[in-house]
Amino acid sequence: MSKAVVLVMALATIGLGAYRGSAQAPAPPPANPEIGRYQMVAANQQVFLIDTVTGQCWSRRGQGQWDDEGNPTRPQAEPGVKKAAIPPPPQAVPVEKFNDVQVKVGSPQFTLVWDSRADLDLHVIEPGGAEIFWEKRKGSKGGELDVDDVDGFGPENVFWNGGPDGSYRWFVHYYGGLGGLAVPTRWKLRIKQDGKVHVVEGNFDKVGEKSAVGTVRVEPKAPAAKAD
Ligand SMILES: [Ca+2]
Question: From residue 147, how far is each of 26, 43, 136, 156, 179 by CA, in Å?
Answer without folding.
Answer: 55, 67, 12, 5, 23
